[in-house]
Amino acid sequence: MNFKDENALDLEWVMLIMEAKQTGISIEEVRQFLQSISSNS
């Protein structure tokens, strides 16, 4: 993948993480979920 700015954040991902935090889902739970779906691919 080529990115113009490697440090740029994807706003959609940021919003999803913020919404998860607001609903009580921890960052670790999000991380575990993402790892589980990536290992199933």
TrEMBL record:
- Which keywords annotate this record? DNA-binding
What are the GO MF terms of this UniProt record?
DNA binding; protein dimerization activity
Transmembrane stretches, start-end: none
Q: Which residues form a coiled coil?
A: none
Q: Does the keyword DNA-binding apply?
A: yes
**Which InterPro entries has this protein been placed in?**
SinR/SinI_dimer_dom, SinR/SinI_dimer_dom_sf
Where would I find the Sin domain in this sequence? 1-38
Q: Name one Pfam family in it.
A: SinI
* GO term, biological process aspect, one: regulation of DNA-templated transcription
The molecule here is called Anti-repressor SinI family protein
The source organism is Priestia megaterium (Bacillus megaterium)
